[in-house]
Write a structure and sequence with these properties.
alpha+beta, Jelly Rolls, 60s Ribosomal Protein L30, Chain: A, 2 domains, five-stranded antiparallel β-sheet, 20 strands
Length: 389
């Protein structure tokens, strides 16, 4: 018991905290199956929430904690999704508690409209409601709710509970914009639920969403100045002949360094050849290039500066899940972002073309997550290359 108390203290969690099972919503990523430990509280005839990011419905948003998260939707037929679970100990009437979730919105969540029967994007923002219940899925009391979750990035939302009765269950629900309820298709992503902590009832809880920094999106660490070489001790006179100093060799010029595009040498290129930039990454559902892509892009810049007789087309491609109009817009924006990067680094715009192909040119099956990831790419196509190099 002493060990448990110390562990909880070190983790910043009180011994009176109420814990959830699988608060990070971990499971195999797949559609229509909620994460283990959670109970589906949906409508008869409708599928359960999803364990994401499976790539299904076009959801590839990275998790904020662990490997997976919960994806929930609201629908245009006035049905919506929610999950429930039994708490480690009850919420007590008259007590106050704080709780938090990481929430985001996926820019696309492509499924079938229940009203129209065709494929639509469930992209509109929704809110999240927290209920207390005496049984699983029994929404006995609305404890708190968020505003509309509009942002396509993870943010921490904080809740404060002051239940009027004792409750053994918590219910997390996706819901429409209110107070006027007009059914529509929307989504919310949910990750990293905190423990439910008792707090004094007069203690304020910030309702302002707080941005979450993902581990793979940490700010670049500033480069430090190189450590100077130690100063040699003063030389003493010597009668011996000084040792001959080796002559320094000139550094190889950039043209002699066998510059490449994604490892492909100039000698392996010809007009029309396509080269995939495998180490080029964008923010989810965005044309914003991530910082870890700069090395690959700078290699391309270097190649273009050395090989001034080469002209290229930058082609953007997506997988097949989103609507075609969205795919064309996103792939064009990503191709343009690469062209803009090269131009800002001094490459003549006349040597750069860009085009978005959308989902029209897959190189793998769109039926698998792996295939969809391969199809979502940027390619370099050689438009002109001199014969002599």
């Amino acid at each position: 018991m002493l060990f448990l108390a110390v562990t909880l203290c070190q983790a910043g969690i009180s011994q009176d905290a109420i814990f959830l099972t699988n608060p990070s919503f971990e499971d195999f990523a797949r559609h229509s199956i909620q994460p283990k430990g959670w109970i589906d509280c949906g409508f008869p005839g409708e599928s359960p929430p999803d364990t994401q990011p499976s790539g299904d419905f076009g959801v590839t948003f990275p998790p904020t904690d662990g490997n997976t998260y919960l994806g929930m939707v609201v629908r245009d037929n006035e049905t919506w999704e929610s999950v429930s679970q039994r708490l480690s100990k009850p919420l007590l009437a008259g007590n106050c508690y704080e709780f938090s979730l990481h929430l985001a919105r996926s820019r696309f969540y492509v499924s079938i409209s229940r009203i129209k029967g065709d494929e639509v994007n469930f992209s509109r923002p929704v809110k999240v409601r927290i209920y207390g219940g005496s049984r699983s899925c029994s929404k006995d009391e609305l404890l708190d709710e968020t505003g509309m979750v509009t942002q396509a990035s993870w943010m921490q939302y904080n809740f404060k509970f002051e239940p009027r009765s004792n409750y053994d269950y918590i219910i997390i629900e996706a819901f429409y914009e209110t107070p006027v309820l007009f059914p529509y298709n929307g989504n919310v992503l949910i990750d990293n639920a905190s423990a439910i902590e008792p707090i004094p009832c007069d203690e304020p809880v910030s309702k302002q969403p707080e941005p979450i920094q993902l581990e793979n999106e940490q700010p670049d660490i500033a480069e430090t100045a190189p450590t100077p070489a130690p100063t040699p001790p003063p030389s003493t006179p010597s009668t011996s002949e000084p040792e001959p100093q080796p002559q320094s060799q000139p550094s190889p010029s950039p043209a002699e360094e066998e510059v490449t595009i994604a490892g492909v040498k100039r000698s392996e290129m010809e007009k029309g050849k396509r080269i995939t930039l495998d180490k080029l990454y964008f923010e989810a559902d965005s044309a914003q290039i991530t910082k870890k892509s700069f090395e690959a892009l700078d290699e391309l810049v270097n190649f273009m500066k050395v090989n001034k007789d080469v002209a290229i087309e930058i082609g953007g491609h997506t997988n097949s899940l989103p609507p075609q109009e969205y795919c064309l817009k996103l792939s064009t924006a990503r191709a343009k972002a690469v062209a803009d990067y090269l131009a800002q680094k001094g490459i003549n715009r006349e040597r750069l073309k860009y085009k978005g192909y959308g989902k029209s040119d897959p190189i793998a099956s769109n039926k698998t997550v792996y295939g969809r990831r391969r199809n979502q790419r940027v390619e370099i196509k050689i438009l002109e290359i001199g014969e002599d190099g």
